[in-house]
# Entry
Amino acid sequence: MKNWQKILLLLLVLSPSFFFLGRAFADNTALVENGALELSGPGSFKVALADVDSLELINALPETAGTGGFSLGLIKKGNFVRKSDQRSIRLVKNNDEAFIYLRAEGEEYYFSLASAAATKEMYQTLKSQRGYGQYTQKKMPLLQN
# Structure
């Protein structure tokens, strides 16, 4: 096999890896609309605000073990098991400084956005929405492109 064929084969084999790594490192966007929080991107989820039992702004994540997620350095996205009680949690970690914890219908979610400021802004938005029958539509300009 000639060198250029080897290089082409190597690129074809590695291309899917680069694609999936690029998607995993992509920032998530958050949208509060029609009474629900929707986090899009890798590790995405949607939660009805009326179903939220607990909402907290925290500065550290629980220790986890991987089960169905992606973890590489700062980035951690997907389903993980919390080591303290072996419960499954959804985790979307984009930064290391601030996290939102919420529990809805027995499921637990921990997430952060592109920056601590964006995460804190989303927390304030969610906090202001809790306890009201009508939710306003608000798209958050959270992430830097």
Residues 3-131 form one domain. The chain has two helices and ten strands. Residues 99 and 112 are 5 Å apart (CA to CA).
